[in-house]
């Protein structure tokens, strides 16, 4: 795909978080129609620097251990340490600072505008994606994180300028609207990590829109939106992103990867209809299921990049929260 033939997001896709009341009904309408929205200036340069410093501390193991951690990094520069990791899942479990980043003002204003008053978060992912690291093939996040009301929304916080060169997000606008989850298939395209690829959808490469954004912007996207990222083809540097996933707190979350840990699943008289993963953080409003309490189940871990080949066990099933 070349950028010359690709569309760019229209002006209506871009909001400015420094303008009070930026999340207008028209902006929410754009999100519902197109499945994504860009909120610029959600973080200022100092905020971005603080998140980057914290990301480095997490990767260096200074905030605690995580699955797949590579040694103690003694004697390595920050750059050498960062380069080893494509993505760390659930960093908010070990970093109080990144836990705080789940609910920044621009995040909360946008989420309550596009989801509704009651919002919870179930996942965070810290992408480092150094030059040469792969992207992720076309997918829909609800393939991995199923809500019951299609309210899943990613809040993708750019910590570097994200460009077509360094592997920004690409979206198929409107692909969420039918509410269909397309079949997924194992792919062996080494531009991508090992996650499966959505297939059989009625859009072509020409419909894909690259979402280039400045550091400090947040890209919001619906859990049924087909999206992907290409590899970081820059010669140096990183494409760092903190992406958190949210949904309406009024929906149960039958997230199978977690269910074996949860009482509602262990009670075999109940069906998946009542299943609810309770490893969630409330972001806004009320939790109608607070009576179930919460659980600390998911552990931070490294996402395999697939650079050494995708081991068989990585393909089916996938790890928690690949979306
Ligand atoms: O940022 C990326 O490279 C992929 C992110 C993604 O697909 C997601 O957050 O669902």
From TrEMBL:
The keyword Glycoprotein does not apply. One of its GO terms (molecular function) is iron ion binding. Transmembrane segments: none annotated. InterPro entries: Phytyl_CoA_dOase-like (IPR008775). It holds the Pfam family PhyH. Residues 300-323 are annotated as: Disordered. It comes from the Bacteria. Keywords: Dioxygenase, Oxidoreductase. PANTHER family: PHYTANOYL-COA DIOXYGENASE DOMAIN CONTAINING 1, PHYTANOYL-COA HYDROXYLASE. This is Putative dioxygenase. It comes from Phycisphaera mikurensis (strain NBRC 102666 / KCTC 22515 / FYK2301M01). The lineage of its organism: Bacteria, Pseudomonadati, Planctomycetota, Phycisphaerae, Phycisphaerales.
